[in-house]
Q: What sequence folds into this?
């Protein structure tokens, strides 16, 4: 932990980089986020997957775990390519379906 705190201090120029975990969790819900219309996508080979939501939180906060080699950290954010692995294409499609439904719902209100 000290290594990471020192790295953050060096990068951001702040002497006290002690995380405010309890405060942040109280604002955003911790392991049960208080949000709406959030699509949680994660990848089995993403180094951050242990720090993220790991199950569907509610009907409008779905979770999708994509399992494929090389699909980790941020691969879902690059532009679509024909060479993308099928599991990545499938998770993007799921995201698109949720987004469409949320936008349609918003237009009705």
A:
């Amino acid at each position: 932990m000290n290594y990471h705190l020192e790295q953050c201090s060096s990068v951001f120029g702040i002497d006290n980089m002690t995380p405010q975990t309890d405060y942040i969790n109280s604002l955003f819900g911790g392991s049960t986020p208080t949000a709406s219309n959030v699509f949680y996508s994660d990848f089995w080979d993403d180094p951050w997957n242990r720090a993220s939501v790991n199950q569907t939180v509610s009907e409008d906060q779905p979770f999708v775990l994509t399992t494929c080699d090389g699909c980790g950290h941020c691969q879902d954010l690059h532009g679509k390519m024909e060479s993308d692995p099928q599991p990545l294409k499938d998770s993007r499609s799921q995201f698109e379906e949720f987004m469409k439904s949320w936008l349609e719902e918003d237009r009705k209100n």
About this structure: The chain has two domains: 1-30, 35-108. The beta strands are 40-43, 63-66. Residues 1-30 form one domain. The chain has a mean pLDDT of 87.
